[in-house]
Design brief:
By secondary structure, the chain is of the alpha/beta class. Helix content is about 60%, strand content about 10%. It is globular, with a radius of gyration of 24 Å. The strands form two sheets. The chain has a five-stranded parallel β-sheet with strand order 2-3-4-1-5, sandwiched between helices. Strands 6-7 form a two-stranded parallel ribbon. The protein has helices at about 1-10, 25-40, 60-65, 90-100, 120-130, 140-150, 160-170, 175-190, 195-200, 205-220, 225-235, 240-260, 265-275, 280-290, 295-310, 315-330, and strands at about 15-20, 50, 75-80, 105-110, 130-135, 155-160, 195.
């Protein structure tokens, strides 16, 4: 990441950039920063081409890669989630690789993909000629620093404790955090200290956080809290089917984290396997300690059966989830 920041700052660009990873917000930020830095003080209209799933004509892509800048020093070609590592598109992808091999010094290509294959020709070419950046989820410490830094721009402060509470409230995805920080700034004004009360007043608690709290309550056999958390979600019209899906997903993640932890895998390995930040992996392990294997497996089976019975009209899903909570906290 530091290499990328230095390249943008010094305008010492690589001919090829390959961006991948879970943190889409950061990918968008650095994609825009590259484009802004390349075209600083220049009109990018004639020298910027973007291709995506709605615009992926291979002839146009090849032509764009071969085109020289028009009254500018450089041009930028953005290949945005074109599934370039999928063998189903092998012929098209090989043509793009050949186009990248012939890339002139005045053309810069930014490639963004969800998944990459490190054995592929494209990956090896990007590694040889360009810069590859994997945008993983930020750690809790990095998120706390980001929140403090963004609030500082508005002459606002927040304690580390309350910054972590904000993360627990709105989730660990940077896009959501940036949106909620902006809401806090608009709500409180400058020269303020952000408190937990202000976060509760302004910020929207994400569904994943609510489900985390609900499963915690079930693990502690706290029936009153479990029912209250569930009814809160129903009251604000969270789709019942989505609540069921998220509860099932949470128990599945807990079970996977428990198995990996029992094999003595470190939290960073568990995080990579489950595609969550390190600090979330640790929380999943902690939740797993409240359940034994049989309880988790039986719970997942009951949730699958509940979904089936609701789909076949044997039970009302909202009532079924209430009964599930009552049984789980018995």
């Amino acid at each position: 990441m530091k290499q990328l920041r230095d390249q943008i700052k010094n305008k010492s660009f690589s001919p090829i950039y390959l961006f991948t990873g879970e943190e889409k917000f950061l990918i968008d930020v650095y994609k825009e920063r590259i484009v802004e830095s390349v075209f600083e003080g220049q009109d990018k209209m004639m020298n910027f081409d973007q291709f995506n799933q709605d615009n992926k004509d291979i002839d146009k892509i090849e032509s764009s890669l071969e085109t020289l800048p028009f009254f500018a020093d450089k041009r930028v070609v953005l290949l945005d989630y074109l599934d370039l590592f999928n063998n189903k598109n092998k012929s098209r992808n090989e043509r793009i690789v050949e186009g990248l091999r012939r890339l002139s010094d005045s053309t810069l290509c930014v490639i963004i993909e969800d998944k990459v294959d490190k054995r592929s020709k494209l990956y090896k070419l990007a590694k040889e000629k360009g810069t590859i950046v994997e945008f993983d989820f930020l750690s809790e410490k990095e998120l706390v620093q980001y929140i403090a830094r963004e609030l500082k721009k508005a002459d606002m402060n927040i304690s580390s404790y309350d910054a972590r509470y904000l993360i627990d409230t709105v989730g660990y995805e940077l896009r959501s955090i940036a949106k909620e920080v902006s809401k806090l700034i608009d709500y409180m004004g400058h020269d303020q200290i952000v408190s937990r009360e202000a976060i509760d007043d302004v910020c929207t608690k994400h569904l994943e956080g609510k489900i985390f709290d609900l499963v915690d309550a079930l693990g502690m056999r706290n029936r009153e809290k479990g029912l209250r958390l569930y009814q809160d979600m129903v009251t604000i019209k969270e789709p019942i089917a989505r609540i069921l899906f998220m509860i099932s997903r949470q128990y599945t993640l807990i079970y996977q984290a428990k198995l990996l932890n029992e094999k003595r895998h470190a939290s960073n390995h568990i995080a990579r396997e489950l595609k969550v930040p390190d600090f979330v992996a640790r929380k999943l392990v902690d939740q797993g300690n409240r359940f034994d294997h049989e309880t988790i497996k039986l719970t997942i089976k009951e949730l699958v059966e509940l979904e089936y019975e609701s789909r076949t009209g044997k039970i009302n899903l909202e009532t079924g989830l209430e009964l599930f909570i009552l049984k789980a906290t018995k």
